[in-house]
What does this fold into?
Amino acid sequence: MAKIQMKTPLVEMDGDEMTRIIWKMIKDILINPYVDLKSEYYDLGLPYRNETNDQVTIDAAEATKKYGVAVKCATITPNAARMTEYNLKEMWKSPNGTIRAILDGTVFRTPIIVNGISTYIPTWTKPITIARHAYGDIYKNTEMKVSEGCKAELVVTAPDGTETRKLIHTFAGDGVIQGVHNTDDSISGFARTCFNYALEMKQDLWFASKDTISKIYDHRFKDIFAEIYETEYKEKFEEAGIEYFYTLIDDAVSRVIRSEGGFIWACKNYDGDVMSDMLATAYGSLGLMTSVLVSPDGKYEYEAAHGTVTRHYYNYLKGEKTSTNPIATIFAWTGALRKRGELDDIPELCEFADKLERASIKTMEDGVMDKNLSYLCTLENKKVVDTETFLHEIAARL
Ligand code: NAP
Ligand code: MG
It folds into this structure.
């Protein structure tokens, strides 16, 4: 069989630990035999990030801007323990944070639905995608402790030196204050990315905030979304037969639980942080959660939502066989290959991605899976396999 040919290279970002091992297995067992893989390789494994003073991460993000589609393996975000473990020159920043800042992107997380894997919410028969605004609010805050008798004010200084002040609180006892911000630019970019993604997925878009309490801050989000929708997207949504729906965050939460899924839920930064953990747990497994970073100008970076699965890697280093779920990483590859196929008009590549996804799901629906997933599986004939066997079982079905 002739291998499928590619036109434009995929930006390939390798990573760390167990997922780095799985990365190579996926390529060897599931991709290279069928696709004449054209990729521009960046090694984002921690040793090489350290060697290049993290320049490789910046180069990989720039390459994504140039080519438009990337696939990324999970990477270590260094902490104090990693400084010694990897003998690092510096505590390098999170690669995902660096890439997100360069691409100015929004992260969309979607669970993979598998028959026989029980979700905690039985009505959720379709995936819910969370789109998290990744800039500002409490993630870029300034906080202070305030002592008894102090008066706290918001002060804004204009370029000409004029000050505008608003009283926050006069403290009768000790307390705390916090300053947060966001920008119209960032909110608009977020809104457009969500509207575009909804059109691409042909799914309704929900957005919610606490505008009844936060009458200026959260209300700004609501207004920007509404204005962009009315002027740029309303007609396109009507043509596609999908809806944009705004509601109060409280109402959104209760509607989400009662829903059957199948829509995109745009969340402010904090809501997205908390709700994506809730959703990942409710849908069953981190190993089945996909993630794609999309920039307002349509650049895509696909990855798994989970980390490098450190505990499994240490077992692997001891020579033990691990049972790590490769599915979310496979779906990062299929997402990226399909997008490349769409952009370069290579239908065989899109078809290959579809087939690999179907083979992956079929494998689990036949009862073949990793250990963690098997705890959630209601099928009678379960077969817990090691990572490599899992991949060969998928290859057999492919
Ligand atoms: P993690 O790698 O996601 O693993 C947490 C636990 O979840 C694992 O120990 C395992 O549970 C289970 N798990 C996750 N993925 C699995 C899979 N594919 N198959 C089977 N089980 C899976 O998170 P972490 O331990 O908090 O972080 C480890 C490293 O990853 C850290 O250095 C962190 O910086 C990095 N990280 C990177 C990214 C990213 O690049 N996007 C995201 C998150 C974390 P059991 O041990 O119980 O089997
Ligand atoms: Mg979180």
